[in-house]
Amino acid sequence: MTRVAQADRLFWGGPLALLLTVASCASDPNEGYVHGWSYDGDDRTVEVVTFENRTFSHGLEARLTEAIVKEIERTTPWTVQSGGAETTLTGAIVRVDNRALGTNRDSGLIQEYAVEIAINFEWTDNSQDRVLVARNGFSGSGAFVPANRVQERLHVGEQGAVEALARSIVAEMRSDW
Question: How many domains does the chain have?
Answer without folding.
Answer: 2
